[in-house]
Amino acid sequence: MGAAMYCEKLENVVFDQKLLNEYLDSLLSRLTYNVKDVAIIDLINYSGGDVLSKPSEQKNWSTWMDIPEFKRSRPGWAVIDRERDRTIVDLEECKALGILHQSLFQERTSAFFGYIENVCQSLSHRGIQLTHTWLACFAPGRGYTRHYHAARHDYFRVLHVPIRTDPSIKMRFFSDCDVEGELPLEEHHLSQGDCFLIDGSVVHDVINVSDRERWHMCSIVYDLKDNFSLGKGGSEAFASHRHQAEIWRNYVANGQGSRFLDWK
Length: 264
Ligand SMILES: [Fe+2]
Known about the structure:
Order of helices and strands: EHEHHEEHEHEEEEEEEEHE
CATH class: Mainly Beta
Shape: globular
Number of domains: 1
Bound molecules: fe (ii) ion
Radius of gyration: 18 Å
Largest sheet: 7 strands, antiparallel
Strand content: 25-35%
CATH topology: Jelly Rolls
CATH superfamily: Jelly Rolls
Helix content: 10-25%
Number of strands: 14
Distance between the termini: 33 Å
Number of helices: 6
């Protein structure tokens, strides 16, 4: 296999494995529900909320990803206009639901504490701008089926900090969602304590084939200081993100401007 194109390791950074584990143990002891199958626990999001006591924060993403429509789009308020390769967000719906802001992620949840705070801080110092940030847990046997994130949407640059994993678990990249038996174009084990950026616009999957839980911190990021050679998503893209955020706020909070966000 030549140089990896879809998964890149951040150079000169290693996060303390012992402290990562301590953070996770402490988090798990605070949860008031059991993690089953797949759990998503927000660290930085757009609405805050008590993520430690709300089992509803758990989503069965495996099942969700199996719905054909979702293999190629994203849920929520965004509608993918495939013909024009655009993502349209109906802000009227956000207004009705009181979603003040989805695209400027600043709220730290109650899961944001301890060493994970240091991890996020040192990424920020490197010029890695975190937006939506969460912990993802796959129980043994669980994972994501093949899917990709819309290439023209912000959500394809996914940073991973593996906290607890097993060398047998691989993230695999493919050319297509549906070709039976296709060999992966690339496959990578994302090792504990390291930090990786993956290009989610390329079809990928991951299955926890081990017998222990796999925990990763994940974040949708902008790379403001060229840490990665994955060239998309620098300061220009971040400026555009902030501009979209402004349009969002104008309509949802003040009822001004366009009802639709054309998220190119
Ligand atoms: Fe993905």
